[in-house]
Input
Amino acid sequence: MTTFDGFTQKDFDVFTIPGLENRMESLRGQISPKLEAIATDLAPDVTAMTGDEMFVHVARHARRKTNPPNDTWAALASNKRGYKKLPHFQVGLWETHVFIWFAVIYESPIKQEFAKALKNNKEDILKQVPDHYSWSIDHTKPDAIPHKEVKDGKFTSMMDRLETVQKAEILCGQTISRDDARLKDPDAFLDLCKETFQTLEPLYRLTKTV
Output
C-alpha cells in the first residue's frame, strides 16, 4: 500500500499527457495510488463521523475508449460495491487544482427528495458552509461556484435544478490551487480533508432524512 507523501507539480502535469493509454498509465502509476492512500487514511474518521462504514473507491475510467480523463478521484461511500448512486465524499484533482467534495451525483435516486430537504434547510446550510467553500452542479467540469455567490441568490435555482433536471448534481466543498503549499505536506492535507468533511457532515446527515 502506497503512503501518501504529498502532491507534486508532476501529478497535475499528468493531465497534459496526450493519448488515452499514455495518460491512463501515468494516472494508474502515479496518482491513483496517492488518492487510494488518502481515502484509506480518511475512511476510519469518516466512518466514525457519519456512523456508516465507509469504503474506498478509486476512479477507474473504465468506460473510456478514446478521450483521456481530465480529472481523477477517490470516493468514500457506505457500500463496498459502488458509490455513484450514494451520497459520498471525494478527493481528486484536475490539472489546475485539487477538490475535496461532498457529492450527490446524477445516478442518485434520492436527488429530488434531497433537493427539497436542502431547500427546507436553506438558512442553516447557508450559515454552516464557510464563505471560502464552493459548490458545483456538474462533476465533469472543473468550474466551481463560490459559496458567497450561492448565498447571494443562486441556492434556490441550483436546488430547483437538482429537483427537476435528470442529469443534475450537487457537490459542495473546497478547491485548492495546485500551487498551495498544503498539498505538498501530507499531514496538513489530510487534516484539511478531515476538517472539510466534518464541515460537510450536516449535508450527509440530511441525506439520511429523505
